[in-house]
Amino acid sequence: MNKIYKKFRKNTKGQYYLLSFCVALSVFLVTSFSLMYFGPTVQEFLPEGGDTRKMASLLLGVTAVGCFVFTVYASGLFFRFKAREYGILMALGTEKKQLKSLLFQELSVVIALSSFLGLFFAVPASFLIWKLFELFIISNEQMRYQFGMEGFLPGILFICALACVLYISGRRFINRSDIMEILRTQQKTEMVKEVKRWTFPVGILLTILGLLLGAGLPQVAARVWGIGLPGVINLFYLLSLIGIYFILLSAVAQSRARKNKSKYYENLISISLMRFTAKAATKNMCVMTLLIFVCGFSAFYGMQYVLSGGAVRTKNSKDFSFHSPVVENQIGKEEVDSTSFAYGIEVTDFTENMATNLVISYRAKDFNEETNRYIEVYRDKETAALFVSESDFETLSGQDIMVKPDTYQTVTTTGYDGFFEYEDGLQEVMNPDTGKIYSLTYGGTVESDVLAPFSEPFAYVVCDEKYEEMTEGVEDTYKESIVSFNVKNPEDSYDFAKDLLSQYVSCATDFSNHMEYWDIWAQKVADKAGKKYMYGDKINMTTDNNMLLADWKYAPAFHIITAQDRMQMISVYVMLCLYIFIISLTAVSVMAYVRSISVATDNKRLFESLTKLGADVQYKKKVLKKQIARIVQYPGISGCVLGFIVAFAMDFMNDGRVSGIEIKALAILAVILFGVGVFLYGIYKYAVYKAEKILVPDSFW
Fold first, then answer.
1. What is the dihedral of CA 84, 86, 87, 92, to 10 degrees?
2. Is 88 left (phi over 0), alpha (psi -120 to 50) or beta?
């Protein structure tokens, strides 16, 4: 029996290699993913209980599911090749018990060796991928690679789950009582009834409707009706899934002679072959379509992090800007000039202005969780905002503006399109020390990417006379100094910026040691009432704190540092998205290859019959290529188009427009999806080559 089985293994060694490769690759991807995710660096970086950690855990789950799916799918082909061997042995009188023992031994060896290889190579792979990302980021001590043994646990659990499923599949395979069913496993067909003409247009309609309702309805409900829809609204996306199934089913199973009858009869065999396996082919294509969509979506999601992670240079921003309490002896022009001289940096457009925190009362929009609606609220003297005089703003921004008496202009970021805050929502302003109240009217908006980020909800500009009147008697604790400047050749200013940041942090005192959303007036109100202020905690103000620029109230805005160092904060997310992309594309490749090989193995006798009927080599190649092309082509086009449409819908539905950065991301996504198409074409060519070798011996071809 061992000699016979050795002969069988020799004849089907390609299937052992395929199954071993899938198991090893799955374990490798899951384990290397978890080694990075559960490593000390990432675990210290991700906030406890935060949305980012939840998303990362979800991505790990998606990774495991994706690997699990394509490995189990590949095992199905393995058992299909084993069907004939086991059917022959059972027909010769071999007991199922003996066959079951042999199969389990083989599966155990394959799983054990493949899993060991996957676990072994996961460690250097995770290290090399981490180092690869360090080429694109500024590395520091906090972002170094750290190995964690707990990262092996998900990989080991994955191996156990996969082994159980393969053993169960093998047991079900052996327990079939009908020998003829085993022998005819490769000749099963899944013919479908006639597909109506309306299937294709209805599929397109359902796909578009699902995307519009799933992505657009929450935004329309919030902006038009003021209603916050629950998460169950995402079930509308299932309409798109049904629509994709209808589209693919129509493409696979719908066949009529129509007007061009000669073309129909010329391709009759190819059309009929696809219809005989329409159900299995359509299900397979649906899964492949969704996996290709996941490829595109994960790539797009990662790009969103990259493109939005760094600071964007606009005409209303400057290379360097920071604000600090005037009671703090912070760096100024003297320190900037001396440091720039040391590094050979030329400073231009230097400005140093004064701003004052005044208490405001304003209208805003808020979400009521009890009624599940967006409501308008009036915040009466709850917070303070920065006010600057007209002349100071002109100096700071380089813009010429005209602010009428008793009016204010709201300072926004470039292209601001807020939903919760009204630019014209300010009603009254109060001097925090004298208690005097001033009523102002809305006079328009001005853009400044220097001043706007320093104040919540907005910073405001008033005329010089009004500013003097409103700030009379205000203590220095409410006043802030705003410094901004540009440099020539900013791309060479990184070392200068790091030195300046170090000086800035060393000069910071307890006056500025506050969290990002800390507010001086809200703190005073909470202290007076004897309550704990939710944003009153201090932060770790050191240059080694990689979250300093994101969490510090008085964090400086140094464009070169933000653009480069912030990449290390998003590198983890990008790596996770990259892994999802790789795993999804790998799953698609395996499924496309396995399905293509199934076309050859399932229809071998049919092609032999075609040879007897006089079909030449070129005709048989033509039939085979059309079958495999449809398996790859239909889901490839559907998945890429769907991925691009969803990405566009996300950007447009977010704020009703597509920004320059989003256009750039969509353009890159189009290039990536084109690359996916080229990769799938390579899989198609290789699958055709292997399928031709299976159907007819090389000498004949």
1. 130
2. alpha
Task: Look up residue 662 and give its two tokens.
Answer: 């989003």
220-241 burial code (b ≥16 CB/10 A, e <16): ebbeeeeeeeeeeeeebeebbe
Question: Residue 138: pLDDT band by 50, 70, 90 thresholds?
Answer: very low
Coil/strand/helix, residue 384: strand
Residue 275 C-beta-side C-alpha neighbours within 13 Å: 15
End-to-end CA distance of the chain: 35
**Which pTM value belongs to this model?**
0.64
- Distance (Å, whole) CA 114 – CA 21: 7
Q: Phi then psi for 499, rounded to 5 degrees?
A: -65, -45
Reference 399, options 384, 414, 421; nearest CA is 414
- Going by C-alpha positions, the residue among 510, 508, 516 that lies closest to residue 481 is 508
Round to whole Å and give the CA distance between 408 and 438. Answer: 11
Token digits of residue 202 = 């209805």
Residue-wise pLDDT tens digits, 268-326: 666 666 666 666 677 777 778 877 887 887 777 777 766 665 445 667 889 999 999 99
Q: Can you tell me the distance from the alpha carbon of 656 to that of 417, in angstroms, rounded to the nearest whole number?
A: 9
Q: Which tokens is 414 given?
A: 């470039």
Name the packing angle between helices 96-134 and 13-37 (round to 10°).
40
